[in-house]
Every structure is written in C-alpha cells, then in structure tokens.
Amino acid sequence: xxxxxxxxxxxxxxxxxxxxxxxxxxxxxxxxxxxxxxxxxxxxxxxxxxxxxxxxxxxxxxxxxxxxxxxxxxxxxxxxxxxxxxxxxxxxxxxxxxxxxxxxxxxxxxxxxxxxxxxxxxxxxxx
Length: 127
Prior knowledge:
This protein has 127 residues and is mainly α. 75% of the residues lie in helices and 0% in strands. The protein has four helices and no strands. The protein has helices spanning 2-22, 39-53, 60-81, 84-120. The radius of gyration is 20 Å and the shape is rod-shaped. The termini are far apart.
C-alpha cells in the first residue's frame, strides 16, 4: 500500500506540473505567415491571441474528460485492489489523466483559434 500512495503522490505532482506549464501557452502562439509582419499584422495577432485566451482550460470538455477518467479509474482501481482505497486512488489518477487530456485538447484549440483568426483577417498563415 505504501508504494501505491507514493505512486499516487508522484502522479498528482507530475500532472500538476504539466498543467501549470500549459496554463499560459497556446494563446500566445505566433504562427508562421507568408507575408510582411507590419503594424496591422501585430495588431491582428494581439487581437487573435486575446480571443484564444477566452477558451478557458477549465471548460466543459475538460471537466467531462476528468469525470470520465475518474469513473473509469475508480472502477479499475476497485477491481485491481478490491478495496475502497483502490477505487479512490484509481478515481484520483483517472481524473487527473482525463483532466490533463482535456487541457491538452484546449491547448490545441487555442492554437487553432489564433491560426483561423489570422487567416480570417487576411494573413496567409502557413504553420
């Protein structure tokens, strides 16, 4: 049981570090454009980055992913350990993994928002 507690604490700590590293990224994404980066481009980029920040990491999709992970992890933990402690540990780990997955999806969405926004304003975004 001691090994399981240590593994749980390490998994929680690692997930927290990963999520905190993502918190201010992607909305600040600066894509490669085919063209000049003049004042209009920089103003549009700032507007598009601000728009991307409106997609929060604690959105409904991330919460759903965390909940689904918690349910599956809890069930797997209960089956594996045949105890309430196993179910709790499984639910915690599953919830963290599901939440991290949802946050990663949000990061991708934020980058896509910047790209689509700049393209919509007439900038030739290539990557």
